[in-house]
């Protein structure tokens, strides 16, 4: 399918009265295009008159025209945005591998430069220009690789990546926890009571249920003046756990090139949030117990004992009680940490919270994107809402938010439809590797290496998403000591 794209220019609008074809008709008469996609920043009346004339003169071509208002004819970002949306829409409706042609002649020089940049980067296309007598292909003397594209053009990609990545949990208060279900009401009431008491709190719940959000709310409602330090125990290599907790002095071990504070000292006077506490190796559990009992730490490589005043909040997606019974978690430590114990219900147990969360997520994402010139606030159709309401949301609120973020940022529609949500759900690597992974049929078709690669892809995808695209953090989240290793796996698995 051959598609021609062009802005309608003044010379096109005047062509009929001046007795010549104008650049757009010139192209349609000299080449065969299945459809032409026009962009217009002119009064509707003039455009309608022109389109009626064009249809008569080029009856073999389907003509689409997209009103594309500009605040001024050289508004780069607005032009870029209209053009990207027009191309994306055309591609989504065309069959496989449409062939694109951009017409450089109609419109302003900035419009021509946007065609040029897009043709040599995001949407490879042929460029043409027309003069009174001829129509020529424009050879570009360069092929802009992504690295040398002007920042302006790369910006939309960066924004898209940033916008679809998970936002870090902000220092929150109870007011930021959205709920109306009884199950959550109980949880929040309990947490409010726990907040001012200077005792350890264990928060349990599936991934993405808001454990860190709740921990921030508890800390911020407590009288503690210091900061809340967040440490993901699952992301620290086993050999470095004690150093991360208690700090070390220069030369304490190979690689200790300078003295570093541990998280207990960093959190002195405040709260230490130990996420994924169930992943803490047994040796580190002994050391942690000692600090909790004595309120003192000793940096590795030093004999000096230092007093610390830290409230510890821990969280886990595991059943720590079962881990304790089965000997994977120390009993004495369990009872130290679980003085107060709160279990966050999974999203599927929260009834009407889901509809409320969908509405709030929509407002929140629209507000977050308000300063992005490439984004316009969006709404959800009933069918889109319906699909969101009927999902299982195994990744709970995080998965819901991230799916909605992807759908809202990717779609060019003002009101999202069911297929926009489907596309965003489909991107979730978690869905392709469900529980069935352990029960695939044995036999000649079974490919253990491929199954293991699925699992790797699944975890790497999750880590990247959770780390908001930060490679070092993502590597740590899956126990890799360097992001280069993560990168190599990503490339190998084509993630
Ligand atoms: N009730 C809620 N209201 C508003 N936002 C929520 C709620 N619950 C979770 N979120 C949001 O969902 C995302 C995930 O929450 P959070 O990181 O606190 O979950 P978690 O249980 O700590 O996850 P993990 O176990 O994977 O670390 C965050 O963006 C958080 O702000």
UniProtKB/TrEMBL annotation:
InterPro entries: AAA+_ATPase (IPR003593), AAA_lid_NorR (IPR058031), P-loop_NTPase (IPR027417), Sigma_54_int (IPR002078), Sigma_54_int_dom_ATP-bd_1 (IPR025662), Sigma_54_int_dom_ATP-bd_2 (IPR025943). This is Sigma-54 factor interaction domain-containing protein. Residues 177-409 form the Sigma-54 factor interaction domain. Keywords: Activator, ATP-binding, Nucleotide-binding. PROSITE patterns: SIGMA54_INTERACT_1, SIGMA54_INTERACT_2, SIGMA54_INTERACT_4. Pfam families: AAA_lid_14 (PF25601), Sigma54_activat (PF00158).
């Amino acid at each position: 399918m051959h598609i021609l794209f062009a802005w309608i220019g003044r010379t096109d609008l005047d062509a009929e009265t001046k007795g010549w074809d104008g650049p757009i008709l010139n192209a349609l008469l000299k080449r065969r295009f299945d459809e032409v996609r026009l962009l217009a920043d002119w009064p509707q009346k003039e455009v309608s008159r022109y389109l009626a004339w064009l249809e008569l003169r080029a009856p073999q071509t389907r003509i689409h025209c997209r009103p594309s208002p500009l605040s001024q004819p050289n508004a780069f970002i607005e032009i870029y945005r209209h053009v990207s949306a027009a191309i994306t829409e055309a591609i989504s409706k065309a069959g496989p591998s449409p062939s694109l042609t951009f017409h450089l002649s109609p419109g302003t020089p900035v419009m021509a430069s946007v065609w040029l940049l897009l043709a040599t980067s995001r949407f490879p296309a042929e460029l043409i220009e027309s003069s009174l007598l001829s129509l020529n292909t424009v050879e570009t003397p360069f092929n802009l690789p992504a690295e040398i594209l002007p920042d302006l053009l790369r910006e939309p990609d960066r924004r898209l990546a940033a916008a679809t990545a998970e936002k870090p949990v902000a220092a929150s208060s109870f007011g930021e926890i959205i709920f109306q279900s009884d199950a959550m009401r109980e949880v929040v009431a309990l947490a409010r009571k726990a907040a001012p008491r200077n005792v350890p709190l264990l928060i349990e719940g599936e991934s993405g249920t808001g454990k860190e959000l709740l921990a921030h709310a508890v800390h911020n409602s407590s009288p503690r003046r210091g900061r809340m330090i967040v440490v993901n125990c699952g992301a620290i290599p086993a050999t470095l756990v004690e150093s991360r907790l208690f700090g070390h002095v220069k030369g304490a071990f190979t690689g200790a090139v300078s003295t570093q504070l541990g998280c207990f000292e960093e959190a002195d006077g405040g709260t230490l949030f130990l996420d994924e506490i169930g992943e803490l190796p047994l040796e580190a559990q002994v050391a942690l117990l000692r600090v909790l009992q004595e309120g003192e730490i000793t940096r590795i490589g030093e004999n000096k004992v230092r007093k610390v005043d830290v409230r510890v909040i821990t969280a886990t997606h595991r059943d720590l009680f079962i881990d304790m019974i089965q000997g994977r978690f120390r009993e004495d430590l369990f009872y130290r940490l679980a003085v107060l114990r709160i279990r966050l219900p999974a999203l599927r147990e929260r009834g009407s919270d889901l509809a409320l969360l969908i509405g709030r997520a929509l407002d929140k994402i629209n507000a977050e994107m308000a300063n992005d010139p490439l984004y316009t606030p969006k709404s959800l159709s009933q069918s889109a809402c319906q699909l969101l309401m009927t999902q299982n949301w195994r990744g709970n609120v995080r998965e819901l938010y991230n799916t909605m973020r992807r759908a809202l940022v990717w779609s060019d529609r003002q009101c999202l439809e069911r297929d926009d949500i489907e596309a965003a759900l489909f991107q979730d690597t978690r869905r392709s590797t469900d529980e069935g992974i352990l029960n695939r049929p044995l036999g000649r078709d079974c490919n253990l290496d491929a199954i293991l690669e699925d699992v790797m892809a699944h975890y790497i995808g999750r880590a990247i998403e959770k780390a908001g695209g930060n490679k070092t953090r993502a590597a740590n989240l899956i126990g890799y000591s360097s992001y280069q290793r993560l990168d190599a796996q990503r490339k190998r698995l084509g993630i």
